Amino acid sequence: MPSIRAANDDDLTTVADLLVQLYEDECPGIFSGSRDASLRLIRSLVRENESVVRDGLVLDSPDGIIAYGAVSTSTFPRRRPSMAMVGAQALSFLGVRAAAEFCWAYSRLQNLVCAPLPPMTAQVHSLVVHPRARGNGYGELLFRTMEDTARQGGHHDALLYVLAGNPARRLYARLGYQVVPTPTLPGVPALLRYPGIAMRKPFREALAMAGSVPDIAGTA
Fold first, then answer.
1. Disulfide engineering: 67 pairs with which of 6, 59, 78, 180, CB 3.0-4.6 Å?
2. Is 216 among the domain residues?
């Protein structure tokens, strides 16, 4: 049975490869260069981002890591990368046209998912399962562990983003997530955000301990 553990620096290459798969699945067209160049770019970018390890959980199997996910908080939020740095790296790995296409999609994605978090809120994100391991319930297993991590950290609720057309929205709804107004980065218009929605789930036991259990039925 696969086991779940915290990510570490030795996992960065494998995690980067899984993130390439995630971007390909959820952001069609983000990569237009060779797959090898795309892999090298994302490996380079994740090495610049300490939150990939700090916030990450991996699902280990005898054949290696088969899934990754992350839990960020308002205290230690996802870090929106410098697009000047991203652009320079994309240009060096992809060439001019592919770099421009990647940077446009990547910046819009970051503008959606890196908005400030409310206090006591955790963001669960970047969940990806290797194609060879899909269909075995591993994604839901890791996702529930990510929620447990957020609860154990004393957070009152969890927030996630679902990109337009992602069928995972049905899974998240089944797990208790409801659509809420999408947080925004100050000064960033909707045109510069990747299409998607925010979904929120209250951890009622944590809210009960704090003396407040809001009813969010009907929130949109």
1. 59
2. no
List the one residue out of 200, 153, 145 whose CA is nearest residue 172.
200
**Contact yes or no for 46/106 (Cβ under 8 A):** no
- SS3 call for 197: strand
Q: Please count the other Cβ atoms lying within 10 Å of the Cβ belonging to residue 137.
A: 10
User: Which residues in the chain show pLDDT less than 70?
Assistant: 205-220
Handedness of CA 194, 167, 202, 53 (dihedral sign): negative
Distances (CA, A) of 212 to 176, 202, 207: 18, 11, 5
Name the pairing type of β-strands 157-163 and 178-180. Answer: unpaired
pLDDT digits (tens, 9 = 90+) for 77-122: 888 889 999 999 999 999 999 999 999 999 999 999 999 998 999 9
39 found inside a domain? yes
Task: State the residue range of the domain holding 33.
Answer: 3-210
Provide the number of structural domains found in the chain. 1
- pTM comes to 0.89
